[in-house]
């Protein structure tokens, strides 16, 4: 059973009781000692594999190298065993492991997603929760329960509260969800979780400029920062430190000044006491390294590449119009009014948020690759630039309605493409969900998650990123997650093959 919690701004003199505050209700969900359903446990395992896959593919990328160097400058803190860092045999304190691993997971925009009133990458909950679990010697069962809480809280917040409408970055839902998961992991009392949620939210609200215009490397760091703040917020709350209250509903709080304002109202769906946490099953992962709203359009472009090769030739194309949702049009489409989305010299972070670019390359190549599709040479190819500048997006109210639908059978993230050739021929086709979506042509199951890991670990040009034996070891461990005992969670790490990571080449900083 789902209970809907009404959230609105309250004047200070109303003295909103703690028990009626959203942060407290989230804490109650986190503290509820429900067990994990078997299908949920299987999906948690899939997402741990998925996170490892995309982290492996980013081991040598500059943001990951820098974050890893920062983390390794900090030894494990004294009150625990420390936490592992993707790629290396070295531990650090849990907040820094959450930081380094969070950047590695997020860097390629290649892991799971949930889209509703707002959008999110719920897999970002895993690095901070796992880091604390390793540091404190928790079991696989503890980790399962904690990750399901992180997913539940983030998905429930994303269903109800829109952040991007007010230009607030989506990680404002991640800080509270990750620290709620940590609360479940450590079996903290409701009051302590309540205080940690308030601190995590307060420290992780920021503007969306990190995802606008010339998108920088901070895009990967933003969720890692939220995870790091979640760990630190839990630590402070455990030490008895309190948070701004009421953080959501106060007259100078988040709703009043960052979201819908004093008259704003939200209804947040939360599982009732004793109800299992199953929100992870509403989420979906990516087959392609690009913004999620581009997934179905990549698959559609691949189909059109085979069926209409003439559509890939700028000499034969007059225009390409993608009819899609408000969000796709205004965030990654031409409705964003970002000239950088049409700039062949733009950063990779910008290009993976440009559906005109993504659709053009997939249409011409009939494929998509997390490295090759973004190289400067690929982006700068003359025929690509010519076709790219003929691609625009338009909002279609029906695609917007389907995007926001809570009915999983009609919820859609794709669009309809209309290609007008110079001879007057019009080619139209549409796709609602990506092939890898649960309702798509080739839904991801355990086999596909494992294949994604093995494919990315194989690297390019014969240079393996992670040895096969290390992949086999990791998979053998993660697939028995519910049975892992205290101390075994350290094995949920992948170490790079010899010569892949060279700490001496890492950039120097203050630490």
UniProtKB/TrEMBL annotation:
Q: Can you give the residue ranges of the MmgE/PrpD C-terminal domain? A: 288-460
Pfam families recorded = MmgE_PrpD_C, MmgE_PrpD_N
Cited Gene3D superfamilies:
2-methylcitrate dehydratase PrpD
What residues does the MmgE/PrpD N-terminal domain cover?
35-263
**Entry's InterPro entries?**
MmgE/PrpD_sf (IPR036148), MmgE/PrpD_sf_1 (IPR042183), MmgE/PrpD_sf_2 (IPR042188), MmgE_PrpD (IPR005656), MmgE_PrpD_C (IPR045337), MmgE_PrpD_N (IPR045336)
Q: Which family does this protein fall into?
A: Belongs to the PrpD family.
Q: What is this protein called?
A: MmgE/PrpD family protein
